[in-house]
Write a structure and sequence with these properties.
The protein is globular. The chain has a 5-stranded mixed beta sheet with strand order 2-1-3-4-5. The chain is built from 5 helices and 5 strands, in the order αββααβαββα. It starts with 9 loop residues before the first helix and ends with a helix. It has about 160 residues and is α/β, with parallel strands linked by helices.
Length: about 160
């Protein structure tokens, strides 16, 4: 995992609190509790999303994808240049691809995903110099809360 990441700001912390609240919404449909918010260049939250794979029976219904789709629909543009995506779990490869395609400027995430992460743990798709867009990455914002939410879900899942 990268060690030279920039520090998070109080704004990032506040947005992560919103993403965590969104993640808890996923529990209502037995989805993995991951939440995301898209923040515009002016600091306004444009869209929110949480995992809805179980609810929608859609393998692409990750929190990041849902939030990006909603932000694009709100703005009437697929390019989300200048925006920040705040998500409780390090994005996977699919979500990293969508983040790059949307031209998101920055990703702030909570917990590392040592099995499928694509923002510095398993892969580093978001900052790959071979690609036509790179994203600033800030990791570990409220990581303990994000990790505990996920761990609690999987503990209950394995016991159920």
């Amino acid at each position: 995992m990268p060690t030279s990441l920039p520090p998070a700001s109080p704004e990032h912390d506040g947005w992560m609190i919103e993403a965590l609240a969104e993640a808890r919404q996923a529990l209502l449909t037995a989805d993995v509790p991951v939440g995301a918010v898209v923040v515009g260049a002016n600091g306004e939250v444009l869209a929110r999303g949480h995992n809805e794979r179980e609810l929608l029976r859609d393998p692409t219904a990750h929190a990041e994808i849902i939030a990006l789709r909603r932000a694009a629909a709100l703005l009437g543009d697929w390019q989300l240049a200048g925006s920040t995506l705040v998500v409780t779990l390090e994005p996977c490869v699919m979500c990293a691809g969508a983040i790059l395609a949307a031209r998101v400027a920055r990703v702030v995430f909570g917990a590392w995903d040592d099995k499928a992460g694509a923002a510095g743990s398993v892969y580093d798709v978001l900052r790959d110099r071979r690609l036509n867009h790179r994203v600033e990455v800030l990791a570990g914002v409220r990581a303990d809360e994000s990790s505990e939410l996920l761990s609690g879900f999987f503990r209950g899942y394995s016991q159920g």
